[in-house]
């Protein structure tokens, strides 16, 4: 029996959370002979924000059409940036990504960027980049700037633990400046946290995605949340942070506040702000601020291992 989209998964499966695109939406669009993957991107924006859905999208496109979700440049598009909105995964602009780093207690942070074609395919539609990394301590002081080149089909790897004088906690901005208009491909950076006997990976996102409010689910085990929130303030003026915890199964509501200086970052340990939280149920944590900030959730396991990811891109 053929592995059709409807037998591989249900039609109601959410594929692109950023834009609310379901599997059924993709299938219906591509089954119209007048439509294509390019028109799907134009109509929905799928895959153009965090790009985490692209592997699933590629599989669905291949199942429906027998092709892969490669975006081709228009003739002559390489010479000049396109005016106005940019279609699909083709970009003429810088990518300024930000994320926290940890450089203490036997933990080191490694930044990796692979510059290959979409879905790791060899492609003429990729380009080289100039890169610049600003390493900023949690107190808001810039400690180092790393410059260099990332050519097509090359991999960039930077170990922040090798930077002399870098504080134990902080954040960074990675600016990727392309030589010309090109397909983004696999240039979404990856961050690797390496501990004494564990490792965790996550990807940064554009600093421009900083926002005033986002929510995540958290749980309590053994009376502890074991969760911290990383907050990055990329603005000069201080940010007022408000964290509200709401019970999902049973009524519970508590709010705590913190202040974060300009250009500073911090790890807010929820167990220090929310004590005696009833055990054995789930909660919703809402983090609000008076200026846009970048937020990551940091889960700390009983053995000291860390897992980390950015807050969802939807409210």
List the main descriptive attributes of the protein structure presented here.
315 residues, mainly beta, Arc Repressor Mutant, subunit A, Hypothetical Protein Tm1070, Chain: A, 3 domains, 7-stranded antiparallel β-sheet, 5-stranded antiparallel β-sheet, 11% helix, disordered N terminus
Give an overview of the whole structure.
There is one protein chain. A hairpin with a 4-residue loop joins strand 1 and strand 2. Helix 2 runs parallel beside helix 4. The two termini are 40 Å apart. Strands 14, 15, 16, 17, 18, 19 and 20 form a 7-stranded antiparallel sheet that branches. The chain has a 5-stranded antiparallel sheet with strand order 7-6-9-4-13, with no helix packed on it. A 4-stranded antiparallel sheet has the order 8-5-11-12, with no helix packed on it. It contains 5 helices and 20 strands. It is globular. The chain has 3 domains: 61 residues, Arc Repressor Mutant, subunit A, CATH 1.10.10.1100; 118 residues, Hypothetical Protein Tm1070, Chain: A, CATH 2.60.290; 101 residues, Hypothetical Protein Tm1070, Chain: A (Sandwich), CATH 2.60.290. The chain is mainly beta and 315 residues long.
